[in-house]
Write a structure and sequence with these properties.
203 residues; alpha/beta; Nucleotidyltransferase, domain 5; 2 domains; 5-stranded mixed sheet; 5 helices
Length: 203
């Protein structure tokens, strides 16, 4: 099994390659150079491991939520590669990747900046992934005092009254989640993107 992983949803852009014998990755803060550098990163990591694009069986892709442009760049590039190579896509929430990248267990609330007083949030079994207001999150925390908060970029989330761990989304986490979901792989025509434009509110 040869799996290429692509993550463009948040601040860091990452590419990884996982085979039965290899794990190799690159991850950078590319800013506006994302669309230019992503293909170069991908080609570099494939060539470095003596493979070709036709050798890729699956593409693991973070499909949101996160930065609108980054999601589109990653999805467009992954879809193009899948069409060209015949690979199937396994999409994974960027929130799940962050949660998996956190070394501690227990109730973990993932928060990602969404702008204008909103965050993307997720807590496995306790809060559905979606877009929430700061007030929604504070209300949820009142009933979940034991939760640990994590974010890829805590400074951008204006909730100074709560403590957050800064967590980097690990490419290995993306690959490990995707590897468990191979049976859910889809053609690029069936790729679903999660922008979470409308707030859900707390149940």
């Amino acid at each position: 099994m040869n799996m290429l992983a692509i993550d463009c949803c948040l601040k860091l852009t990452g590419v990884a390659l996982m085979t039965d014998d290899i794990f190799d990755s690159e991850q950078y803060d590319l800013g506006r150079q994302q669309s230019t550098e992503l293909p170069l990163m991908t080609e570099r990591i494939i060539r470095r491991n003596n493979l070709s694009f036709s050798d890729i069986d699956y593409i693991a892709l973070t499909n949101g939520p996160g930065y609108f442009t980054g999601i589109r760049v990653g999805a467009a590039y992954a879809s193009g590669l899948a069409y060209a190579s015949g690979a199937k896509i396994i999409y994974v929430s960027s929130l799940e990747v962050l949660a998996h990248s956190f070394s501690k267990t227990g109730k973990v609330l993932v928060l990602v900046y969404a702008g204008h007083g909103f965050v993307y949030a997720f807590c496995d079994k306790f809060l559905d992934a979606g877009e929430y207001s700061h007030e929604d999150i504070l209300s949820w925390l009142n009933d979940n005092h034991d939760a640990q908060m994590i974010s890829d970029d805590p400074e951008r989330i204006s909730l100074p009254q709560i403590a957050m761990h800064k967590v980097k989304p690990e490419m290995l986490s993306l690959c490990e989640i995707a590897r468990e979901r191979i049976s859910l792989a889809v053609s690029p025509m069936n790729l679903k993107i999660s922008y979470y434009r409308a707030p859900q509110g707390v149940n």
